[in-house]
Design a protein that fits this description.
α3 packs across α4. Strands 1-7-6-2 form a four-stranded mixed sheet. The chain has 243 residues and is α+β, with helices and mostly antiparallel strands. The protein has six helices and nine strands. 39% of the residues lie in helices and 16% in strands. The chain has one domain. The N terminus is likely disordered. The longest helix is centred in the N-terminal third of the chain and has 22 residues. β6 and β7 form a beta hairpin.
Length: 243
Amino acid sequence: MQAIGQGFESPQLHHFKMSYIYKEFYEYVDRPSGEPLGDTNRKIFNSFVWDNLIQPLLIPSNQILLTKQELKRLEDFAIRKVKAKDTEWNGVDDGFRMKREMTGAIVEYALLKKYGKKEHFDDSIVTKSSLKNHPDLLPLGIFCDVKGSSMNNVPLIFKESRSYTCSFGPYKCPNVIGVTDHTNVWLLGIASPEVLQTYCDDNLIKNAENTTKTGFFGFKQLIQLPNDWETFNQLCLKITVKP
């Protein structure tokens, strides 16, 4: 499926550009594509993708404005969630959890606000993460997950576009990709399951110990977010994949 709003540029040309940028980095560090990299080169790769693929998308047309009151509500939610996670995981990774929880909450809330659905933001806290082991928007009937990243960091996605199971069987859903500086939010577009699986590289993860996720760089393959909720719903359903 061709991405919306990409003019007359063919998917083949987009793929070439993406491949060129990817190849250019590995030529710069003088390593074969995909070969495991050390921490320094991982940081360089992360910055390379940020500067060349993400930064150009941080434009007013992709931006959602949040009020101080909304940001305070999301911060309070993130604090409560971190406390629950600390109890569940006995403090593991607590040094980074607040920033991660805040990033995810802000991007998801901004998406709902775009479509006039902010009152449906789920700020409930559960004692076990498994109780919310589903795509972020599934409770609203949308087969879609939301992946956010903070400034100067690429989004991390589940490896092989993780399958979820529901009443009609397993499926792989698209992801809305967003970026925030914890004041401003930019919604960059929708990544199909195929794009999520194709345009990723473990070397984009700064912490090589993370084995469940990988880094996403398929920003030129993103589908533009529709203007209304129903069209968004139908689009997500159309590109959801049953493995």
